[in-house]
């Protein structure tokens, strides 16, 4: 167990209290409403205070930094600072900051110190460091999961590469979607699978990583899984004749047991009932949604979270991917 990662986890609660007390961290209280849809117990957070949060237009994620608009560049605000990590294999350095606008307590961001684009895929060092944070979190009895919103249409709001972490209940050990993946019966663990009841493309890999796996084994397990899922994500969007040109957008979820990629066609869903615009990111696919008013809450329940996710996701071509063929040979399997 790496001391650096454990130190990050133990530093979070005090840093969070300090951030709030200083006024630099804005905490928006909310209440959770559970709503079941398609076997997932969605947690819909009603957070009226968010109506007051400044909404910034989603930037176009250039490959280069724009220092003036980058809140994640040094010097770091000491009231949001948690610590630093370095991936020795890749030589990449990271800073861990608290989310300045928090709806969930102890929400942290793992940010590359050197600018990298939020449109770029996760690199081996990113995956390893994120996984080690999750491992340390579980070890200390404060489990978390990680997510990454990649690209213009993924629901991300900052262009500088950041992976996010939020705590989950101790007895749950993952976000709501994780229960579905844990229950999935798959024949070959080394192959990606799809949660077939979901009405949109989803690519999942089970991670059977021994808890004492050395760095290189961890790096190769995570990178291979990520590349398999990314391949499938790209083959999925290539089958959508209307998918916008350019780099595909997608959401990533990482738990200690599973890695997920959800291809994204658009960022915003317009609610049928109210016409309100709902920005959806990886959290929606994890089973956690956010609404700003009781009317919006009712509209989400009525329309159904899965329909909303279908609206911003991409049609699944999993059957074709399982059937194989020159393009899909042996890439995926069905989960029962
Ligand atoms: P995303 O919107 O998924 O790109 O995540 C970026 C997160 O960074 C959001 O949840 C913001 O609340 C948070 N954020 C924005 N500005 C800052 C800042 N100056 N320091 C820390 N977190 C920030």
UniProtKB/TrEMBL annotation:
Keywords: Nucleotidyltransferase, Transferase. This is ATP adenylyltransferase.
């Amino acid at each position: 167990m790496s001391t650096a990662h454990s130190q990050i986890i133990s530093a979070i609660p005090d840093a969070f209290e300090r951030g709030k007390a200083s006024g630099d961290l804005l905490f928006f209280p909310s209440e959770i409403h559970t709503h079941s849809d398609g076997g997932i117990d969605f947690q819909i957070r009603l957070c009226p205070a968010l109506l007051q949060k400044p909404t910034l237009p989603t930037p176009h994620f250039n490959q280069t930094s724009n220092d003036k608009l980058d809140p994640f560049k040094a010097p770091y605000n000491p009231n949001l600072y948690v610590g630093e990590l370095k991936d020795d294999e890749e030589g990449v350095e990271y800073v861990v900051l608290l989310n300045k606008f928090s709806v969930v307590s102890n929400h942290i961001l793992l940010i590359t110190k050197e600018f990298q684009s939020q449109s770029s895929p996760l690199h081996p060092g990113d995956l390893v460091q994120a996984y080690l944070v999750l491992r340390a979190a579980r070890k200390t009895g404060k489990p978390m999961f990680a997510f990454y919103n990649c690209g213009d249409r993924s629901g991300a709001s900052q262009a500088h590469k950041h992976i996010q972490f939020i705590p989950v209940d101790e007895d749950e050990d993952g976000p709501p979607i994780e229960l579905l993946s844990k229950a999935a019966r798959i024949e070959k663990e080394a192959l990606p699978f799809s949660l077939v009841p979901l009405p949109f493309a989803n690519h999942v890999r089970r991670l059977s990583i021994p808890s004492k796996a050395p760095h290189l084994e961890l790096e190769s397990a995570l990178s291979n899984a990520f590349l398999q899922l990314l391949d499938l994500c790209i083959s999925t969007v290539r089958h959508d004749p209307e998918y916008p040109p350019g780099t595909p957008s997608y959401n990533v979820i990482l738990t200690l047991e599973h890695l997920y990629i959800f291809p994204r066609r658009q960022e915003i869903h317009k609610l049928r009932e109210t016409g309100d615009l709902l920005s959806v990111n990886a959290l929606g696919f994890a089973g956690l949604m956010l609404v700003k008013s009781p009317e919006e809450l009712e509209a989400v329940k009525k329309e159904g979270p899965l329909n909303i996710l279908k609206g911003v996701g991409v049609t699944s071509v999993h059957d074709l991917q399982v059937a194989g063929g020159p393009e899909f040979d042996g890439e995926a399997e069905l989960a029962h």
